[in-house]
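FAQ: What does a multi-protein file look like?

Like this. Sequence, then tokens, then the next protein.
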Amino acid sequence: MGRGAGAQVRAGAPYGVEDRATVATTRLYLEPEHGFEADARVVAVSERALAFDRTCFYPGGGGQPADDGTVRVGHDEPLEIVSAHADRDEIIWHLTRSSPVADLVGRPAKLCVNKARRLALTRYHTVLHVLNTIALRDYGGWITGVQIGVDQSRIDFKLDALSAALCAELEEKVNAVDDTRSRAEGR
């Protein structure tokens, strides 16, 4: 099953993994409620990476960075998760700031995504899709690059001409879409 194709997918191990996870990681972030917290079980440990049977951590992709947050294994102190990625087998690995102990396999864990960061990245990701659609539809502007961040993001287009007036038009059209969406959602 490919990435994003369903709730369960397989991912590969990071370099230096001695205990490979063999069961697909269930991707809870694909659920409508976004899954900011989840109960899981540790299925593999690497030098500074953990794999779980299920996760609410988005491993990055489509220009959007991976989630960060924390994990508490059993009653131990929380470990900081600085990133997540899916390997070639599509097991999602959670990179920790410090090295976890090796005897974690099989233990229950509580995963917590940095919700404020995820929502900021998601908002930028969505608005860049809107901007991309308008630029292509109305001006023939093809996207050539994108960088999504928490505090600011950018999108690059191949356009025949770029001017302050065109930027103002794009901004007005994007804001109109957002206003329409906000009214539809009752905000």
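And here is the next protein:
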Amino acid sequence: MTVDGGLSRRQMLLKTAMAFNGVVGVLLAVPIVRYILSPVTKVRKPGYDSWVSLGPIDRFPPGETRLATYRHPDAQALDGETADIACWVRHTEGEHFQVFAINCAHLGCPVRWFPQSSLFMCPCHGGAYYADGSRASGPPERGLFEYRFRILDEKLQIEAGATPTPGSSPASASLVNISGSNMTKRPPCA
């Protein structure tokens, strides 16, 4: 059967199917192209590189570790209290501070500071950390995560937009010598 204009039923269904497949192909290509081009077009949110004030430095006496809270810089109105984040501030001397994330490096449970023993303790699996945040015992394989800090107008500020992770702090970076200069020549399994 031929429709007016010289198209057979088979030709019309073939063209309709091709048009439908073309529309589906374009709809599938849009997210794939956006994913491929995202590193080029990606713009960081303004809160990502934000410095947040924890308060005046007088609030953190030298030699003491205190709990402080701040509001996440990228918080939305619906976040409520979940956008209030706690951290531990240790004033070592002068204008040098250590600001630790409250989460254990093992599974993220909140650690507590015990001034009697000068240890941070994790209630979940018994992880313990020294006052400087390094691992003391338990299942965590590393020390507490540390925020970068600065002092501006007599106020302690931390870089709070990015969550501290291994390798994010230049102070936590260390190099291991694997060149063999101080190693004996042995097979790897010996």
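Q: Is there any per-entry metadata?
A: Some entries carry free-text notes. For the entry above: The chain has two domains: 2-41, 51-171.
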